[in-house]
């Protein structure tokens, strides 16, 4: 794929970029290693000052970078501004909390006395340069949720961003430099996917983090495994949204619409499969379909647009194939199911709700990356859990019930990295984020995320004689 900004609302190529050559990549690796050798020993207070400066700059740049994101991948301008604000918030959170999260831990001497230790300490030290392979759908947030903890831990970062968001990638490079981070601490590499293997195998790269497709995750994990390097993977999801009889149906349906079409439906943690108890199925479906059908599809730069275009022509084609396959096999489109007739350019697709889904349909097994929801009618809680878990993914889940026993059961039995009751899945810097099954492994955010790229060192002190 060419490294280029192509406006998905018009299909127009606005700017192209040359990929770095081998010599330029080598220069970046040298700078990253040199920066790490100095930066690793800086104080938390110094790192925090730099990251807080970056947050302030990002706030000042919010509208400009939001317009860049909207232009490059099609999210609404309102959503892009919110993404920039969330990134600044997360930078401040890690600047405030990193030192306590990575503080030395001292086991009770009585608990380790039989090891011969007078005392012992567990320390968290940075690993080195971390390669981040990031996707286009949240082009600022996906990077910051890696970069903020990694930099606060004393690591350096190399970013290989998606090829369709090069201007956002370069902005991040510039942002950290403007904030005063030493040269080489954070660098954007404008390279294609074919360059990733050699970079990851380089001994100056200590670890990797990837958010993206299962195919990309398998590739990076296998290379890193061969090199015995740490990885964190987030590989998408097909999140269930369960609605049970005690739910507030009006609130559940309103939230369901937002949960499905956030980021134009192109979110790993967007609810995609709506699993509804038969007692409330018809009432919920009526509200949900009405909400989806009422959404405004249009220019993502307009303030009143709810759903913009998909990020690429291929992405829309892939979504159409899933819908067409389902309809051909007996599913019903309760709304949508086509390209908007009044949008003749750009990669738009109508918000769509399908029911009558069966296991023979591709959409039952594959992630629908766009504003398409599938409805399932279930007879009881047992069937709801079975349908929810009938996927290779396990990123997050949503459940609407006010029954405490049902909540206990679902928190135990839903196979996912998160269970959100009576609300929609969202990431927050203070909560660990990641998945189970083929949604990946490892965690981002919170204390768990910042420790992923640290060397947990046991320091043992024997008696001095």
Q: How would you describe this protein?
A:
The strands form 4 sheets. A 7-stranded mixed sheet has the order 11-12-13-10-9-14-15, sandwiched between helices. Helix 10 (249-261) links the parallel strand 9 (239-243) and strand 10. It folds into 2 domains: 4-235 and 438-461, Aldehyde Dehydrogenase, Chain A, domain 1; 239-426, Aldehyde Dehydrogenase, Chain A, domain 2, CATH 3.40.309.10. It contains 16 helices and 17 strands. The radius of gyration is 23 Å and the shape is globular. Helix 3 (62-73) runs antiparallel to helix 7 (166-178). The chain has 465 residues and is α/β, with parallel strands linked by helices. The model has no long low-confidence stretch (mean pLDDT 97). It starts with a strand and ends with a strand.
């Amino acid at each position: 794929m060419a490294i280029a900004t192509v406006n998905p609302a018009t299909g127009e190529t606005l700017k192209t970029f040359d990929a770095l050559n081998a010599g330029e990549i080598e220069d970046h690796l040298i700078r990253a290693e040199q920066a790490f050798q100095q930066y690793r020993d800086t104080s938390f207070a110094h790192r925090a000052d730099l990251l807080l400066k970056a947050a302030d700059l990002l706030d000042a740049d919010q509208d400009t970078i939001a317009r860049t994101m909207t232009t490059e991948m099609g999210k609404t301008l309102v959503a892009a501004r919110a993404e920039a604000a969330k990134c600044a918030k997360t930078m401040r959170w890690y600047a405030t909390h990193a030192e306590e999260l990575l503080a030395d831990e001292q086991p009770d001497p009585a608990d380790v006395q039989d090891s011969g230790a007078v005392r012992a300490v567990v320390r968290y030290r940075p690993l080195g340069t971390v390669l981040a392979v990031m996707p286009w759908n949240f082009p600022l947030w996906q990077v910051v949720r890696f970069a903020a903890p990694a930099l606060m831990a004393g690591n350096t970062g190399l970013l290989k961003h998606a090829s369709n968001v090069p201007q956002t990638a370069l902005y991040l490079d510039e942002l950290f430099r403007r904030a005063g981070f030493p040269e080489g601490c954070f660098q954007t590499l404008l390279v294609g996917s074919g360059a990733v293997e050699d970079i990851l195998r380089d001994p100056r790269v200590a670890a990797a983090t990837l958010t993206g497709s299962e195919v990309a995750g398998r590739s990076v994990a296998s290379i890193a495994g061969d090199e015995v390097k740490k990885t964190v993977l987030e590989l998408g999801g097909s999140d269930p949204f369960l609605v049970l009889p005690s739910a507030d149906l009006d609130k559940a349906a309103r939230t369901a619409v937002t949960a499905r079409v956030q980021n134009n439906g192109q979110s790993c943690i967007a609810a995609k499969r709506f699993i509804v108890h038969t007692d409330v199925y018809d009432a919920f479906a009526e509200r949900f379909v009405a909400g989806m059908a009422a959404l405004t599809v249009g220019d993502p730069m307009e303030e009143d647009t709810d759903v913009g275009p998909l990020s690429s022509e291929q992405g829309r084609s892939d979504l159409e194939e899933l819908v067409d396959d389902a309809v051909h096999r007996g599913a019903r489109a309760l709304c949508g199911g086509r390209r908007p007739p009044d949008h003749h350019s750009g990669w738009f697709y109508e918000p769509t709700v399908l029911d009558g889904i069966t296991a023979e349909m591709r959409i039952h097994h594959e992630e629908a990356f766009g504003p398409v929801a599938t409805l399932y009618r279930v007879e009881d809680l047992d069937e709801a859990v079975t349908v929810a878990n009938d996927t290779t993914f396990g990123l997050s889940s949503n459940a609407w019930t006010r029954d405490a026993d049902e909540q206990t059961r679902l928190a135990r039995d839903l196979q996912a990295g998160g269970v959100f009751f009576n609300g929609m899945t969202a990431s927050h810097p203070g909560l660990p984020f990641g998945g189970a099954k083929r949604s990946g492994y490892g965690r981002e955010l919170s204390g768990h995320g910042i420790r992923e790229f640290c060397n947990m060192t046991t320091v043992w002190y024997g008696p001095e004689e």
